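Possible regression after last week's pipeline update?

I re-ran a chain I had predicted before the update to compare outputs. Posting the input and the new output here so someone can diff against the archived version. Not blocking, just want to make sure nothing changed silently.
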Amino acid sequence: MKQVLKFFKPYWWMLILILITTSVGVWATLQLPMMMASIVDNGIIGQDESYIISEGLKMLGITAIGGVAVVGSGFLAARIGSGFAKEVRAATFAKVNSFSQAEINKFSTASLITRSSNDVQQLQQVTILILRMVLQAPIMAVGAVINALATAPNMTWVMALGVSAFFVLIIALFIAVMPKFKIVQKLVDKLNLVARENLTGLRIIRAFRNEKYEEKKFAAANEDMRRINVWINRAISLMQPMMTLIVNGVLLAIVWVGAHEIASGNLEIGNMMAFMQYALQVIMSFLFLAVLMIFLPRAQVSMARIGEILSTKNSIKEPENPEPFDQNMKGIVEFRDVTFSYPDADAPILSGINFTAQPGQTTAFIGSTGSGKSTLINLIPRFYDVSAGQVLIDGRDVRDVSHEDLVRAIGYVPQKGVLFSGTVESNIKYGAPKISDKEVLKAAEIAQAEFVLDLDGAFKHHIAQGGSNVSGGQKQRLSIARAIAKNPEIFIFDDSFSAVDYKTDAALRHALKPITRDKTVLIVAQRISTIKAAEQIVVLDEGHIVGRGTHQELLLNCKVYREIAQSQFSDIEMEREMAAIRVADRKAAIAKDRAGVNYGQ
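New output (post-update):
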């Protein structure tokens, strides 16, 4: 709760001002019954018309003062509520942006969206409600009770009885409704999750004709939401007639007891009328509290959910004393005895990983699905941190380098191309906003994204949310262009060529060679044709390195790599590969023998 309430701090002076305006408004409201009682007892009964006019004008003046105060309170409440919500929303968004993949998986994407939007909206509504209505309730109640005691002390028990009945009703409602609001927010998460999955996988759903199945899933979540909301609304609806019954009962009791007091000469008519209004003001104060009790439980749940985000400690932490990279950074990547386990996993996904990727060379990773290829390279930009061992760049542990310096040195292309709403140009410039138009064009050409020139507006062409108005291959090539435009020391391609055809794949790799001549290139691939020219290929199997070397070396010496090759090459192609290796070995042996003969001579 502290994590959320601290956002009121910039508005402390407005809170003081709203307290003053609310007090003025309450003071004005409390003056009116006493003045009305005086008009009745002294003006009407005493038939003093001038007294009635003068007191009436005073009442109009006090009413005007109270009206200005109420308007001012409303204005300040709106400013504070919307400003507070803005600060909370910004802090929540910033915190989510700082999360590693581990924290995002912990909360789920759907829940994070709900907490950043729906929960903040709940807090804003309750904040404005408290500042506009509920803040005046205790001031009004105390003032009304004091004035009621002054006008008709013998009748205060009637007021106390009504307040007690209201208090019991409010507590009962709070106890009944509070747990239900917790369920509501979880159901909102579930509803968002189902809707998000449906919208994200809409093409798959249609391809398998599973629209009815998804509609049933959504209907089930929707029905759960309807059922709990009906229960809450019934409880709230039941409260309304009970409140009306209590109010009318109190008024009837005041008239009944007041009539007897007037008949016995212990009370004047004007004082009874004033007491009735003060009693109503006290009851209305508790009515405001009852309204708050309807909204407060859900706001408390929302505050707790937002506070959970803000108080979550990031598993990926910035070093206290970061070590900067050398000005002439080389980009040597080294894995030293690395082991990694996902949170709450039963076994490590990677174990005992050791290799070094040198600048000017391509290091490729291949293996069966689930062997840990993508996980391995995700440790370099610190999407996750190692469980044991070290990931080093130029001899520095990535955990000892500031995150800003680390990501500046890396050009990362994910397995699934991600584009942002904007233009083609803004997407390519995403990691390097200051590059020239010429550099943007060059990056697109290297990434084989010349299709941009055929688009309406070319590089100014609008990209829809998620890149939905371009194909998968085009999206992938624009993602590669974005990494190229950044001109980093280390390129990471996480199976980034899978969405392009063989011809484009070959042309892209050929175009990449000149710009990666002095760079460290790391490629995760499923196709051997993509990586067979790599200087170093690392073969993974169940989280272990089972082979490392060139394409030819691995075909001869690594069973897992040979099995992958056999699954991708035809028998004739496999025979050609093995024949080429035998020829190369024979030439190497002849060259070695000749070198030995020459040395002997």
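Follow-up from reviewer: compared with the archived run. The chain has 21 helices and twelve strands. Marking as no regression found.
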